[in-house]
């Protein structure tokens, strides 16, 4: 992986131009939800110094992005390919780093047969066959996730996970299970 940080004023201007395309594409999608990134296969243009931390913070060039609107704009053009994450437009693709999942599920409305999550970037996702809830064991601790879109997951925050555990019922094998839109999701192995 190449780190293409801009060093000279010319390089910084070129880097800004690359980022401007990402920002323009994201702004066009504003209010309409995520851009159709699954339809775009632009050439790889290098790495952007952007990291999404496990706690949901988006860090650009070592500083947190303080404007939630900017985070939402970038999130709308986020794409996953294998284990890599990119910000994409129809004409460019910039690699970024993601520590865990790109989003956090920060709240959930838990109904009889529907669990509706809200993410830290304002997405709403209903758990079901296409948006599964899963729990992974990482270093002996459960890490709960819900699929959001296009291979992008949200880590379910602690308070929301505790609420899910309280709402779960036991299945025939004694496991805690949630149900949403006709699908069942085990909260334990």
Automatic annotation (TrEMBL):
Signal peptide: none annotated. It comes from the Bacteria. InterPro entries: DUF1285, DUF1285_beta_roll_sf, DUF1285_C, DUF1285_N. Residues 35-101, 102-187 form the DUF1285 domain. It holds the Pfam family DUF1285_N. This is Proteophosphoglycan.
């Amino acid at each position: 992986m190449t780190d293409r940080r801009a060093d000279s004023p010319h390089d910084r201007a070129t880097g800004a131009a690359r980022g401007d395309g990402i920002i323009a594409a994201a702004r066009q999608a504003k209010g309409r939800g995520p851009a159709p990134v699954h339809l775009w296969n632009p050439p790889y243009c290098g790495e952007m110094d952007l990291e999404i931390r496990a706690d949901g913070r988006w860090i650009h060039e070592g500083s947190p992005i303080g404007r939630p609107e900017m985070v939402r704009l970038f999130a709308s053009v986020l794409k996953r390919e294998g284990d890599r994450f990119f910000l994409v437009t129809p004409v460019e693709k910039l690699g970024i780093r993601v520590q865990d999942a790109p989003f956090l599920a920060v709240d959930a409305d838990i109904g009889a047969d529907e669990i509706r999550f809200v993410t830290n970037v304002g997405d709403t996702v209903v758990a079901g066959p296409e948006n599964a809830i899963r729990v992974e064991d990482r270093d002996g601790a459960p890490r709960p996730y819900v699929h959001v879109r296009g291979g992008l997951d949200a880590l379910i925050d602690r308070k929301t996970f505790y609420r899910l555990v309280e709402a779960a019922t036991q299945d025939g094998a004694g496991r805690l299970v949630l149900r949403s839109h006709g699908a069942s999701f085990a909260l334990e192995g």
